[in-house]
Specification:
The structure is a homodimer. In chain A, a hairpin with an 8-residue loop joins strand 1 and strand 2. The first copy, chain A, has 2 domains: about 110 residues, PurM-like, N-terminal domain (60s Ribosomal Protein L30, Chain: A, 2-Layer Sandwich), CATH 3.30.1330.10; about 160 residues, Phosphoribosyl-aminoimidazole Synthetase, Chain A, domain 2, CATH 3.90.650. In chain A, about 60% of the residues are buried. In chain A, helix 2 runs parallel beside helix 3 and helix 4 crosses helix 7. Chain A is an alpha+beta fold and about 350 residues long. The first copy, chain A, has 8 helices and 15 strands.
Chain lengths: ~350, ~350
Amino acid sequence: MRDIKVDLSMGGGGKRMDQLIDLIGKSIRIHNEEEDIVGPLQMDDGAVITLPDKTKNIVLTTDSHTVDPIFFQGGNIGDLVIAGTVNDLTMMGAIPKYLTIGMIIEEGFLLEDLVKICKTIGEKARLAEVRIIAGDTKVMPKGTISNIVINSTGLGIITRNPIQDSNAKVGDKIIITGEIGNHGASLIALREGMEFSTSLASDVKALWPELKDITINNSVHCMKDPTRGGLAAALTEIATKSNICIEIDELLLPFNPQAVPITDILGLDILEISCEGRAIIIVDSKHTFRILEQLQVIDKAACVIGTVIEEPKNKVIMKTEIGGTRILDKPYGEPIPRVC
Amino acid sequence: MRDIKVDLSMGGGGKRMDQLIDLIGKSIRIHNEEEDIVGPLQMDDGAVITLPDKTKNIVLTTDSHTVDPIFFQGGNIGDLVIAGTVNDLTMMGAIPKYLTIGMIIEEGFLLEDLVKICKTIGEKARLAEVRIIAGDTKVMPKGTISNIVINSTGLGIITRNPIQDSNAKVGDKIIITGEIGNHGASLIALREGMEFSTSLASDVKALWPELKDITINNSVHCMKDPTRGGLAAALTEIATKSNICIEIDELLLPFNPQAVPITDILGLDILEISCEGRAIIIVDSKHTFRILEQLQVIDKAACVIGTVIEEPKNKVIMKTEIGGTRILDKPYGEPIPRVC
């Protein structure tokens, strides 16, 4: 290992990140224990633990937000702080309750911008029905951190079986709650100076309480928000953990007409581009229509994109527009750094 | 507020940091609710919340670690990650249970160093009887973050009345569990190139389980670890929140003979220098001897340094070696940046 260095590809939600996380986990010697309903070794969106009195389970999840730029079309880092953590709790089937906020601020950062971000955090926390109950603030000398990085850790209460990535069943339908890749695409448009040629905005939003009725319904088998690594990474994770095949149809995928040209021009695959306000929901097929109807009230773009089939196991297959098939996979490295 | 910038003094555990935190809290509109035993407005070491079923209270606390250098005499950033969070839980009277770890790594960071840090995190977590149950990893481009920053958020279970900063009573004795300022002094020695002239090491350590017997004992009225801002800041915080006066005696303070000259030469006040493995314990005077005896088994330097008196309220008074008195206060700004 001597002289091997961490590179950007290890932060991108792809295979290289899995390798890095594996090394970190083994070095720490993380392990599951009997009290774990979903232990750290499951690498799900959060850990689910039985409290000593056995009456209540809690979910813990953590996220650090390093987005650049911190203000973007459709939101700012404060939106990500709330959405990232609330969505991870929601994806586990939990009721999001409390958040802690750890801010690391660069010397010279404008107080005015800090106030804007904090107001967003407060406002979006109230909308998501969570409360900030503890915090930490550090200031680092100029040039040792870029602008501001914010960690948010969330605690949720869980009263149903946790919704796990490993629970997709053959015959289930795969739903996406809205357009794919808008967060990442709008962010790179801004970074590459293309923001004036597009009105595309990030999709960042907390999915709680809008998914409340759906997550408490046990007909939901899996839920995952396609963040770093996009739809391709999230579906691959589910296929692998559930030991099934996911078959999706390219013609069914909902894209924003402004997002695709942005990723195309930069040689990126929109299926690997991050959303910050969408969920993949995998449901028992007999409930598909009812759930879809509920989702379309929130977002007209919600739709069924595919089905869980038996073979080939652990794979995601996409029927392409031109009638071929393509295997989707986790990206190897980092399509876009500092996207969340 | 236009054009006012965050400066380093706002990260130092002093009055300027209080102002910054106040602004952040008001912008977020943090507030207490009925379920809070110790709410966020108390600004204690952690928040204590009643879970919905009322049978169990939990404590949440968060800390980001930005220490520079990351390897130092007596430990590395991994020791701080565990000690910082475990100690905050311990200071509330909680049983530390679970930690989340959020790592933000600079591109180019040596994997070998990352593994060393993770091994320390794992080993120190096991010693402190806590388990890492969730994590997050981000990689930032070279030059946008210095080395590595790690957030740790902790959850503890609490079965006694929380130990609050506001609970010091007139007549109580003030105990310190070991030498003062070793962490900060050893770190600046290293930064200033004085490490070869000293064998001083950081005092960083998790105070759980070694304080277990003492924290579950209700004769403890207050507990606080003197981290950023040192003994002066921690005692001032207790005096203000408890609305009493703390009187300490300089002759009783335990210093490492190597620490004082280091801070003196740099014009720093050792009373404002951070410890990372010490606690101030304020106890009912009739239990002083018994508790001190227990503490001295762990560290011979543990001693009584003063008494809680009535007046002048909200002040910390020190009887000096030469027979005078001096009012201690929170430092205004940042004596040493990136100390934890």
